[in-house]
TrEMBL record:
UniProt xrefs under Gene3D superfamilies: lambda repressor-like DNA-binding domains (1.10.260.40)
Pfam families cross-referenced by the UniProt entry: HTH_31, Peptidase_M78
Organism (species): Nanchangia anserum
PROSITE patterns: HTH_CROC1
Keyword Cytoplasm: no
SMART domains xref list: HTH_XRE
The HTH cro/C1-type domain, residue ranges: 21-75
PANTHER family, sorted: HTH-TYPE TRANSCRIPTIONAL REGULATOR, METHYLPHOSPHONATE SYNTHASE
Record flagged with keyword DNA-binding: yes
Any GO molecular function: DNA binding
Keywords on record: DNA-binding
Protein name, as recorded: Helix-turn-helix domain-containing protein
Family of this protein: Belongs to the short-chain fatty acyl-CoA assimilation regulator (ScfR) family.
A cellular component annotation (GO) from this entry: cytosol
Length: 487
């Protein structure tokens, strides 16, 4: 059998192509053997093509199309040739899904041999299994376990991601950012590098900070800021998914990791590594490290500057650190440490949701006369003495204190090291800050009862789906409406 030397079809879905060839052959009322003989190949070879086990060369596919009287466009179309064929293809993919493998379900090797109704039921059951698996893996307990693992990974690397730094450095050089804040012109240059257009819409689903439309290469933002945050951060976080090749997260652990990476990427562009290190090394040499001034130098929010400092301090400046974000009622929302500080944890080891000690700087910042000014103090703990700075910031969810601390020996590098404020914390000992003075307890214990404000985010299951926390129906309807406006 002579074969014409032609290139292969490249990246094609062999299973879908095989279904379309088989559908065209059946429609032409041709047997496998008659078509195989006509194009000069064996029946077994053509059968392998139809079952998706072999990808034909372009010359063979051209001959098959001519013999069946159909165009190449018909055979290479992206849609299944029939509902039945679509169900068979979908079942094949679902049987390879993690949920099916984990359940060790027996595999249906020949879906073409079962009835259409039975096939439809099997596909539905597989979808239900995948949904149930997603929901089970998204309980608060599973989410906290994923968060603990992520924190351990961050600790092992000193919260430094060299691959993300390198990608951000490439973009920084490409747009010519050589110093100072990332202004609107530089931000537009970054967006243009990805060949996207920013579109602001008052109709963007409320829970969405931003939305990427891959089809039309648009980045949707709300018409006005909804959370009071720097809009540049939302733009750069969205572009991070493109720059870092993020796939749709299938697990909450992946979702968390991608969120950390996106935040890191945004910070690395707002405060490029080379520029930030130049500033920080000079400040350390002069013993005037100051997170408030660091934020001001790059015109970024205080919390962004603190995050960026934790990225660079240990790896480049040999300064171990701890970080926390605490609400006004003392609940820890975020935390990271590699300097030996001991955060409170629950029985599962989770830090988020626990109460920070009242004597820590992040709690004391709320009690200062000017609570929006930087607060610095030394805190004696069972793990040692730490120098800490904290500042109260505002967000749509209320006021939060953002704190950064280092061991006492590293306080010498910081401008506010001469602070007169000092506290002693013995938490988790309840006598530290959990017990009321006896005379107040005696007076009020039997005469007061308060309704507690529940922290719903600590109780609710993590929303499953392709858009965690968002309603896919809202997202798709919004995109469809925007596509209609541009047609």
């Amino acid at each position: 059998m002579a074969q014409t030397a032609q290139s292969s079809l490249g990246d094609v879905d062999e299973a879908l192509l095989g279904k379309r060839i088989r559908h065209a052959r059946k429609a032409a009322r041709r047997t496998l053997g008659s078509v195989a003989n006509a194009v000069g190949y064996s029946s077994s070879y053509l059968s392998q093509i139809e079952t998706g086990k072999r990808s034909p060369r372009l010359s063979i596919l051209t001959a098959i199309a001519a013999e069946l009287g159909v165009s190449m466009d018909v055979l290479l179309a992206q849609e299944p040739p029939s509902e039945r064929a679509g169900l068979e293809l979908e079942l094949a993919k679902l049987q390879d899904a993690p949920s099916a493998r984990k359940a060790q379900l027996p595999r249906v090797s020949h879906p073409e041999r079962i009835g259409t109704e039975e096939l439809r039921a099997l596909v539905g059951l597989h979808h239900a299994l995948a949904a149930a698996t997603t929901i089970r893996s998204s309980t608060p307990e599973e989410a906290r376990a994923a968060n603990r693992q992520l924190r351990a990974d961050m600790l092992a690397r000193g919260n430094y991601f060299p691959t993300i730094e390198a990608r951000a450095a490439q973009l920084t050089e490409a747009i010519g950012h050589s110093g100072g804040p990332l202004d609107a012109s530089l931000l537009r240059s970054i967006v243009k590098r990805f060949d996207y257009t920013i579109v602001r819409s008052a109709d963007l689903p409320y829970a969405a900070r931003s939305l990427l439309d891959y089809r039309n290469r648009r980045l949707y933002l709300p018409a006005s800021s909804r959370d009071g945050r720097d809009e540049r951060i939302h733009v750069l976080r969205a572009l991070a998914d493109l720059a870092l090749d993020h796939d749709r997260p299938a697990t909450f652990a992946t979702f968390l990791r991608q969120r950390v990476e996106s935040n890191y990427f945004a910070c690395a562009l707002l405060m490029p590594e080379s520029l930030a290190l130049s500033y920080l090394r000079s400040a350390k040499l002069e013993r005037r490290l100051d997170l408030h001034e660091f934020a001001h130098h790059f015109a970024v929010p205080y919390e962004t500057a603190v995050h960026r400092f934790t990225n660079l301090a240990t790896h480049h400046l040999s300064i171990p650190v701890h970080f926390s974000r605490v609400s006004r009622d003392g609940v820890i929302y975020k935390a990271y440490a590699n300097d030996g500080v001991v955060f409170p944890t629950d029985v599962t080891g989770a830090i988020e949701g626990q109460l920070a000690c009242r004597k820590w700087a992040v709690r004391q910042a709320f009690a200062q006369p000017d609570r929006f000014a930087p607060h610095a103090q030394y805190t004696d703990t069972s793990a040692g003495t730490f120098f800490c700075t904290a500042q109260v910031t505002t967000a749509s969810a209320g006021e939060f204190s953002v704190g950064l601390g280092v061991p006492f020996t590293d306080s010498k590098w910081f401008r506010l090291r001469a602070t007169p404020h000092r506290q002693s914390s013995t938490c988790p000992d309840r006598s530290c800050c959990r017990l009321s003075p006896q005379h107040l307890a005696d007076r009020w214990e039997e005469h007061a009862f308060a309704q507690v404000r529940a922290h719903a985010h600590l109780l609710a299951a993590v929303p499953p789906g392709a858009f965690p926390g968002l309603d896919p129906v809202e997202i798709y309807e919004f995109l469809e409406g925007q596509a209609g406006l541009s047609d």
